[in-house]
Design a protein that fits this description.
The structure is a single chain. This protein is an alpha+beta fold and 124 residues long. The chain has helices at 2-5, 8-14, 21-31, 68-82, 97-102, and strands at 34-38, 41-46, 53-54, 57-59, 89-92, 105-112, 115-120. The strands form two sheets. Strands 3-5-7-6 form a four-stranded mixed β-sheet. The radius of gyration is 14 Å and the shape is globular. The protein starts with a helix and ends with a strand. 19% of the residues are buried.
Length: 124
């Protein structure tokens, strides 16, 4: 699904081929993500930072429309409420826009041809 909806520029911006694996491992560990699993295999992950910024939100392309994104977004909302975070925001791809809008976000700003800044339309 990712390849169907994104051109090469978008794919390279969101998932570059030349990422240092050590850097990436440290980065993922540092954001303390929620991880969705099916039969013990990670199929998605997401995080929410203390500021309310959703830095990472990913569902594996082999598992679309199975409720994984919804479950991750629900975990983010629960964490935000328990942490007294009043607002959520994220930079999202064109592909992710409809999902985020469906979850109550609104597009606030287009930051480049491939990236859009969103914020949750309601206070949590």
């Amino acid at each position: 699904m990712r390849e169907q909806n994104k051109n090469h520029e978008q794919i390279n911006a969101w998932a570059p081929e030349n990422v240092d694996p050590v850097y990436w491992k440290d980065r993922i560990h540092g954001i303390n993500p929620f991880v969705a699993e099916i039969d013990g295999q990670a199929v998605g992950y997401a995080d929410v930072q203390p500021t309310g910024y959703i830095d990472h939100f990913f569902v594996h392309g082999q598992y679309p429309r199975q409720g994984i994104g919804k479950a991750l977004m629900e975990a983010i909302h629960l964490k935000a409420r328990s942490s007294l975070i009043k607002a959520l925001s994220s930079d999202v791809s064109r592909t992710a826009q409809p999902f985020f809008i469906h979850c109550g976000f609104e597009i606030v700003e287009q930051r480049s041809p491939i990236e859009f800044f969103c914020r949750h339309a309601k206070n949590l």
